[in-house]
Amino acid sequence: MIRFLKNQVKRESHDAERLVLGSLELELMEILWSCGESNVRDVGAKLGRPLAYTTVMTTLDRLYKKGLLVRRKSERAFVYSPRTSREGWERRRAGDVIATFLHGPSSSAELLLSCFVDAVGEHDAKLLEELEKKIRLRRKELYRRERP
């Protein structure tokens, strides 16, 4: 049982690590999100600064191993493309952060909700109204599911 729990924690932390990107990784992902499929040389040419071919190649390989890119062989080089959209990646990251808080002690969940509502309220009043609408719609959906 202890081994199972250790493996579960390891797996969850590994999944979270996959979604954390360094500045170069994020820059390369932005290039691929904007242009789609590219090889190492093309991605390197689109960078805003000169970088060694091997550095770009290694970073793209790391993104592939994290599961963020797909690649296929074209002649003697790999061609990379994003596995998911930027929106899909951001949604997954946000979901993982929220899930981490919600699976913790109840005080963590309450703190998350409080901070979230405060941040949304400070950012944009219209966004806070949208949040209220989404909550009402979700409650209606849950109510319909509960009633046979």
Give your account of this protein's structure.
- The longest helix is centred in the last third of the chain and has 22 residues, at 125-146.
- Helices cover 73% and strands 9% of the residues.
- Strands 1-3-2 form a three-stranded antiparallel beta sheet.
- The model is unreliable at 8-14 (pLDDT under 50).
- By secondary structure, the protein is mainly alpha-helical.
- It contains seven helices and three strands; from the N terminus they run H-H-E-H-H-E-E-H-H-H.
Q: Top keywords for this entry?
A:
3 strands; three-stranded antiparallel β-sheet; mainly alpha; single chain; 148 residues
Q: Approximately what portion of the residues adopt beta-strand conformation?
A: 5-15%
Structural class: mainly alpha
Put simply, the count of helices is 7
Q: What is the straight-line distance between the termini? A: 38 Å
Which sheet architecture does the biggest sheet show? 3 strands, antiparallel
* Poorly predicted segments: 8-14
With strands numbered from the N-terminus, the spatial order across the biggest sheet is 1-3-2
The ordered H/E elements are HHEHHEEHHH
Helix content: over 70%
- What is the approximate shape? elongated
Number of strands: 3
Q: How large, in whole angstroms, is the Cα Rg? A: 20 Å
Overall pLDDT score: 85
Summarize the entry for a quick read.
Helix content is 73%, strand content 9%. The chain is mainly α and 148 residues long.
SSE blueprint:
Blueprint: H1 2-19, H2 23-35, E1 38-39, H3 40-46, H4 53-65, E2 69-74, E3 77-82, H5 86-102, H6 106-123, H7 125-146
Antiparallel strand pairs: 1-3, 2-3
Helix pairs in contact: 2-4, 3-4
